[in-house]
Amino acid sequence: MDQITQLDISIGRVSRIADELEQQVAPCPASRLRFVTWVTDLVGNPSRLAEIEQALPSIPQCLVSAYTAWVHAAVCDSPRPILFTSLSHAVPER
Predict the structure, then answer these.
(1) CB 60 within 8 A of CB 87
(2) Which uninterrupted H or E stretch holds 68?
(3) 73 three-class SS
(4) What value, to the nearest 5°, has the Cα angle with vertex 93 and ends 65 and 17?
(5) With CB atoms 3.0 to 4.6 Å apart as the test, which of 5, 22, 28, 58 could cross-link to 35 if both were Cys?
């Protein structure tokens, strides 16, 4: 499988998690690309992605909490966006 096909598959997998977050928590104030990129960064690795996928439609509370904080911080418009270093820790950008 070529890299473009792998990337397309990965984006589709992460998009399903993004869809669940929007449906269960709140609409995302960011563009779809930024949102999917955020979820990708937060999930971090393929094995964690597989774990989350298998549990869908249930979403880990740490992911729900991180997303809720991200939405409430209005990351799209904030001059100091919040960076998430893991699924459970938010660190304000300096």
Answers:
(1) yes
(2) helix 61-72
(3) coil
(4) 35
(5) 28
